[in-house]
């Protein structure tokens, strides 16, 4: 009896130590998935905030995913979620701190957490917030985040060198900087500068026509999971419109036509149901009032039926720009390749 009890205890300890299922540990029939990736590079990430990582557990879990061993994946993933949240954070941050967007296929948990991971690239406080958020997650939410991250690890098959490149990007990437305001030179010289916000405009003066504005071209694209999505491409309509203006007036991310940019509910594409037309593209402030207005329809034009039906179904639009020549079919790709394309996913506001 004592001998049998000792055997059970040893099996239980072996299961805890290795993450293997209890039945496999009891039969001493553990197996390993080779080769194990070298996960020591995860220690270089700021997101675990100096907490101890179980890189061996991470390596065995990733190896199990790459070989498709479901029993080991379930057992090791559970151990990681329940005992090693800092390691979970490191695995997820290695993916989502470098991706411009988690993509529409990611779970709501991951889409909510990913901005914290990106902010943690250069901000120790944000990195700590990313860890705290994961430690506060329910088991179900932690499972969603881990599954999303492991999808990338399993498909990508990243080598230690590729992981090191990711970490280097995290350490060295500067935060997104807005271009310098050309008026700053006048301010430094002691010259009083007035902006539109400083002016008490007379009644009847429309500030839209005093600021840079854009035209739009209708397009369609696909989400990462293959679902169709409406798209608007901006092009300058005034000489002062362009990439520098969009950098100053928006927080849109640089987009290289891969994946899907983040959704910002404050950006709205206004649509009118009565005539199936688009009215404008605006940023709504915290008070609910229109702030930045980038485009306003000069005339009412009913949209093609298929495009409107897609808009009505998806109720979000991918907005990207600026392109220099909207009639050029290669202009969008050229802007993305040059790193001169900003993008956001905006909500549709029907009226």
TrEMBL record:
Lineage at the top is: Bacteria, Bacillati, Actinomycetota, Actinomycetes, Kitasatosporales
- Can you name the source organism? Streptomyces similanensis
Q: Where is the composition biased (Low complexity)?
A: 20-29
Region Disordered, annotated ranges: 1-34
Q: What's the protein called, per UniProt?
A: DUF1963 domain-containing protein
UniProt biased composition (Basic residues): 1-19
């Amino acid at each position: 009896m004592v001998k049998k009890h000792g055997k059970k205890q040893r099996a239980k300890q072996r299961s805890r130590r290795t993450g293997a299922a209890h039945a496999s540990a009891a039969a001493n029939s553990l197996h390993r998935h080779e080769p194990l990736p070298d996960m020591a590079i995860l220690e270089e990430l700021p997101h675990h905030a100096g907490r101890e990582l179980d890189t061996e557990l991470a390596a065995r879990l990733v190896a199990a995913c790459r070989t498709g061993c479901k029993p080991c994946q379930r057992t090791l993933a559970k151990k990681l979620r329940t005992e090693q949240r800092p390691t979970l954070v490191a695995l997820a941050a290695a993916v989502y701190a470098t991706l411009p967007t988690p993509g529409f296929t990611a779970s709501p948990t991951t889409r909510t957490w990913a901005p914290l991971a990106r902010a943690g690239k250069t901000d120790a406080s944000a990195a700590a917030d990313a860890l705290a958020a994961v430690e506060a997650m329910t088991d179900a939410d932690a499972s969603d985040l881990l599954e999303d991250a492991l999808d990338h690890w399993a498909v990508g098959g990243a080598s230690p060198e590729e992981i090191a490149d990711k970490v280097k990007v995290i350490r060295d990437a500067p935060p997104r900087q807005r271009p310098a305001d050309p008026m700053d030179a006048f301010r430094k010289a002691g010259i009083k500068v007035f902006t539109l916000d400083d002016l008490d405009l007379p009644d009847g003066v429309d500030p839209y026509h005093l600021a840079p504005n854009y035209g739009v071209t209708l397009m369609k694209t696909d989400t990462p999971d293959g679902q169709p999505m409406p798209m608007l491409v901006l092009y300058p309509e005034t000489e002062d419109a362009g990439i520098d203006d969009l950098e100053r007036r928006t927080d849109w991310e640089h987009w290289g036509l891969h994946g899907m940019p983040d959704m910002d509910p404050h950006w709205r594409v206004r649509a009118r149901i009565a005539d199936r037309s688009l009215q404008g593209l605006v940023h709504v402030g915290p008070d609910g009032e229109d702030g930045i207005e980038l485009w306003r329809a000069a005339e009412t034009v009913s949209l093609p039926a298929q495009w409107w039906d897609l808009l009505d179904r998806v109720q979000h639009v991918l907005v990207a720009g600026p392109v220099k020549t909207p009639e050029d079919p290669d202009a969008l790709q050229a802007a993305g390749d040059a790193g001169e394309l900003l993008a956001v996913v905006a909500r549709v506001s029907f009226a």
